[in-house]
Amino acid sequence: MDAAIQQEIFQALKKILEPYASKMDVKADTDESFYLDCKKEVKKGYPMFFGAVRYGKTYISYYLMPVYSQPALLEGMSPELKKRMQGKSCFNFKKSEPELFKELNQLTKRGFETFRKDGWID
């Protein structure tokens, strides 16, 4: 994949998570990784993971833990976004897809609100 395309995808996906950074712990903010944890601990000092964006070998990955812990969030997801899922909480992109990024933005917002309601986020 072209480096400029990778950077474009990474930046677009990072922008989805950035608005939530002030309410969470930013564990990584580099050119290849942006990682957010909730401030509350799950157990034994480990925080609840919220989401991340990172470079892979041939794609950019977007991780969103709320869809793993609350699979009902995926109801109504478009087939196109569903095709990008790898596992239960990861979405992989090889090209810029603004419409899917918009849908992922709404999914992230719902995930944030669910985590807030469940007490993981103040």
Description:
The chain has one domain: Aspartate Aminotransferase, domain 1, CATH 3.90.1150. It starts with a helix and ends in a 5-residue tail after the last helix. It contains four helices and six strands; from the N terminus they run αββββααββα. By secondary structure, the protein is an alpha+beta fold. β2 (33-43) and β3 form a beta hairpin. A six-stranded antiparallel β-sheet has the order 1-2-3-4-6-5.
Write the layout of secondary structure elements.
Blueprint lengths: L2 H15 L7 E5 L3 E11 L2 E10 L4 E5 L1 H4 L9 H5 L1 E2 L3 E4 L4 H20 L5
Antiparallel strand pairs: 1-2, 2-3, 3-4, 4-6, 5-6
Helix pairs in contact: 1-4
First-to-last CA distance: 39 Å
Q: Provide a count of the helices.
A: 4
The total strand number stands at 6
Number of domains: 1
Mean pLDDT: 94
CATH class: Alpha Beta
How would you describe the shape?
globular
Instruction: Spell the H/E element sequence.
Output: HEEEEHHEEH
The quaternary structure here is single chain
